[in-house]
Amino acid sequence: MRGDTPATTAATANASATPAGTPGSSASTLADRDNGELRIDRVSYEYGGGRHPVVAAVDAVDFRLPAGRLGALVGPSGCGKSTLLRLAAGLFEPTKGRISFGSTSPAELRKRRRVGFAFQDPALLAWRSVRHNVELPFDLAALPTDRAWIEELLAIVGLTEWADRRPRELSGGMRQRVSLARALATKPDLLLLDEPFGALDEITRSELNLELLRILSATGTTCLLVTHSVDEAVLLADRVVVLSNRPCAVRLVYDVPEARERRGASRDTIEFLDHCRTVRAALAG
Fold first, then answer.
1. Quick check: 197 and 209 in contact, CB under 8 A?
2. Cβ–Cβ contacts within 10 Å for residue 255, how many?
3. How far from 194 is each of 89, 104, 147, CA to CA, in Å?
4. Could you write out the three-class secondary structure of 204-270?
5. Considering the entire predicted model, what is its pTM?
6. Is 230 inside a domain boundary?
7. Which structural domain range is residue 61 located in?
8. Alpha-carbon distances, residue 82 vs 22, 185, 237 (angstroms)
9. Nearest Cα residue to 70 out of 273, 270, 256, 266
10. How many CA atoms lie within 13 A of 106 on its CB side?
11. Which residue spans within 66-200 are E strands per DSSP?
């Protein structure tokens, strides 16, 4: 027995032992998406208590993210961005307020395998091939693998020719692509990304930023991203949510007007720099 690893932890967030149907059924098709918006309604979260002091991590955070859009959470280190992301995943419940995705709660969405999660560390299983790493959520949920979708995913992330290789044979950027494909394996309605490109060099990070936009355009998945990079947030997001120091509260909700297909060419424009200045000014308070 190999026991739990970071890879199985990440994949478990993308899988559930509660079947929502088998691959090929209506429960696993893209047409079966819950197309409602992600609603964060006055959400607060505290932890501790008992012998430990109560710590407020999130304070009355309130914003919306329309279906099929990408939102970015930007704020100081330790402010509660990752906590908010885990609340959106249904990994724990808010102390106050409510989170919903369409008519569904995050916990129910996760039980139905409709939430994908990817972290900064790709956390791949070294002894499994690229293809078998992407299939991991199906294995953990004890469900038949949707092999046609796995092959399509590998093509979407540009790894078809590397499908039988082991993680040690891949570059850092390629390993992160595998992580993204694994997060999308169960065709989630909601994709949650916790600084997925934070450990990469600038060139690879820039390439994967544009790759992510292409992938989301191909899958139609709603995505909420945590990042410390203002430039990355403005490049990727349709809506940037600027958060304060802990306990995090919303300082600004800023909509980026440029269409996704124009983002790659917009980074050196006055408009892009103006968007970045606005977000940085909100961060500075």
1. yes
2. 10
3. 11, 22, 27
4. HHHHHHHHHHHHHHHHCCEEEEEECCHHHHHHHCCEEEEECCCCECEEEEEECCCCHHHHHHHCCCH
5. 0.83
6. yes
7. 6-284
8. 31, 22, 17
9. 256
10. 24
11. 70-74, 96-101, 115-118, 190-194
Strands 190-194 and 38-49, sheet pairing = unpaired
Give me the CATH number covering residue 238.
3.40.50.300
Position of tokens 């106050």?
A: 96
Instruction: Give how many domains the chain has, as a whole number.
Output: 1
Closest to 208 measured CA to CA, from 139, 138, 159: 159
Residue 1 lies in a domain: no
Instruction: State phi, psi for 73 to the nearest 5 degrees.
Output: -100, 120
- Which amino acid does the sequence have at 225? L
Residue 34, pLDDT > 60, answer no
Identify the residue whose tokens are 């994709």.
Answer: 191
User: pLDDT by residue (tens digit) across 94-142?
Assistant: 999 999 999 999 999 888 888 998 887 888 999 999 999 999 999 988 8
Q: Calculate the average pLDDT of the chain.
A: 86
Q: How far apart are CA 193 and CA 237, in angstroms?
A: 12
How many angstroms separate the Cα of 195 from the Cα of each of 180, 228, 262?
12, 8, 23
At residue 53, what are phi and psi to the nearest 5 degrees?
-65, 145
User: Is 28 or 136 the better-scoring residue by pLDDT?
Assistant: 136
218 in a structural domain: yes
Q: Amino acid letter at 92?
A: F
pLDDT band at 211 (very low <50, low <70, confident <90, very high): confident
13 φ, ψ (degrees, to nearest 5) = -65, -20
Asked if residue 4 has pLDDT above 50, the reply is no
**Omega of the bond prior to 144 within 30 degrees of 0, cis?**
no
> Does residue 66 lie in a domain region?
yes
Q: Which residue has tokens 């191909």?
A: 218
